[in-house]
Design brief:
The complex is a heterodimer of chains A (about 280) and B (about 120). Chain A is α/β, with parallel strands linked by helices and about 280 residues long. Chain A has 11 helices and 12 strands. Chain A has 2 domains: about 200 residues, Rossmann fold, CATH 3.40.50.300; about 70 residues. The two termini of chain A are about 40 Å apart.
């Protein structure tokens, strides 16, 4: 079953069209990475899913309910980590948690304490005195302490140092191991999620380039070195499968999907290398 | 934990976890009937998806290397150590084979390669 289903979503601000045609889904229990360059509309998509922006066209369903984004009873099942993490400056950590907890019937006080101690956050600290990393951890506590069935995170670790990033993912993985929650996470720090995401959705130019299982992606997209002659001899059919071509001193480095070439040694790539090759290849 | 993930390896992550556990059993890091770390502990330690770890455990159990006690955890099966040693032996041989292939391509003949192996042995 799909927990999130986005169909032909279109959304813009004034004359500026941000999302032209966005369709993807998050199945139950899956971790989906939503990736793309800065300013391509990842945050806009996520805010639309959270009911904060109204689509111009298209449909967003949560648990098969097309009005789910606007229903408190459904939003209560979601843990949301927004991109901008603002709160009342003078409130204490404990005060903030008490406030947020009122929105969730299933808030787990014991788990809240556990998360605070894992994150080394003092309940007495004031929000305004928290570092960016501590703010991110507090917002993760907001999102996780009610043990949500769906976790939606928007660039959650982009301002964090490596230690804070590591803590952040450890807590998230620990919870999804326990609850089998579904996760949608947008990020441009691909190395963070390349081993966590079951699937990747790539957004570019307001459209979805693909939604693919991580394993399938790593299996199908590879890199090879070929000579100029070799490249000239390729058929159009074969060339279509090339994602990115880079000139090297002795010929070309090509990134291609499911391209079967004789006498070619294909190298495996990391997810990060694959996604970057798609994004760079679009400009060619 | 001794397990490590190589992001650029052609071996999928569940396969790398599986191979790592097999190697640890072969080297006696986990003894027969010893409890393995939980899916959650492995997932958190390696920062990988818990589903991936579960898949590695499922395959190990199909290959009769581990067994599951419901609600308690996964344990190393009797006889698993020998089985794992054989698997590690096979894998090391195939790795050596691949490395030797590079030498063959570089023009080293059979004699030269035999000499390398003999030199290594006498070390």
């Amino acid at each position: 079953m799909d927990v999130i289903e986005v169909k032909n979503l279109m959304l813009g601000f004034g004359r500026k069209k941000v999302l032209r045609d966005v369709s993807f889904s998050v199945a139950k229990g899956k971790v989906v990475g939503y990736v793309g360059r800065n300013g391509t509309g990842k945050t806009t998509t996520i805010k639309a899913i959270m009911g904060l922006y109204r689509p111009e066209a298209g449909e967003i369903s949560l648990w098969s309910d097309p009005k789910g984004s606007y229903k408190p009873r459904i939003r209560e099942r979601i843990g949301y980590v927004p991109e901008t993490q603002d709160f009342y400056e003078n409130i204490s950590v404990k005060g903030a948690l008490d406030y947020i907890s009122k929105f969730y019937k299933r808030w787990d006080n014991e788990y809240e304490k556990e998360l605070l101690s894992q994150f080394r956050l003092s309940p007495k600290s004031h929000f305004k005195d928290l570092s960016r990393g501590e703010k991110a951890k507090l917002f993760l506590t907001f999102a996780l302490a009610h043990k949500p069935e769906l976790i939606i995170m928007d660039e959650p670790t982009s301002h964090l140092d490596p230690v804070a990033r590591s803590d952040f993912w450890e807590s998230t993985i620990s919870l999804i191991s326990e609850t089998n929650a579904s996760v949608l996470v947008s990020t441009h720090i691909l190395s963070d999620i390349e081993n966590i995401a079951d699937e990747f959705v790539l957004l570019s130019g307001g459209k979805i380039v693909f939604q693919t299982e991580t394993e399938e992606l790593k299996h199908s997209v590879k890199k090879a070195y070929i000579t100029e002659e070799y490249l000239q001899k390729m058929t159009d059919e074969q060339r279509k499968k090339i994602i990115l071509t880079k000139k090297t001193a002795k010929g070309y480095e090509i990134y291609a999907k499911n391209l079967d070439l004789k006498d070619c040694e294909w190298e495996s790539l990391s997810v990060e290398e694959i996604l970057v090759s798609y994004l760079k290849g679009e400009n060619q | 934990m001794k397990l490590r993930i190589d992001d650029t390896s052609p071996i999928p992550i569940y396969g790398q976890i599986k191979n790592g556990i097999i190697q640890m059993i072969a080297l006696g890091d986990f003894k027969e009937n010893e409890k393995l770390p939980s899916v959650r502990d492995v997932a958190v330690a390696l920062k990988v998806n818990p589903n991936t770890v579960s898949r590695a455990f499922t395959e190990l159990s199909i290959e009769k290397i581990i067994y599951t006690k419901r609600g308690i955890g996964n344990f190393v099966k009797n006889g698993a150590e020998d089985l794992c040693k054989k698997k590690v032996y096979k894998r090391v041989l195939s790795n050596i084979d691949q490395e030797l292939d590079i030498l063959k391509k570089a023009g080293f003949d059979k004699k030269a390669i035999e000499k390398i192996i003999n030199d290594m042995r006498s070390k």
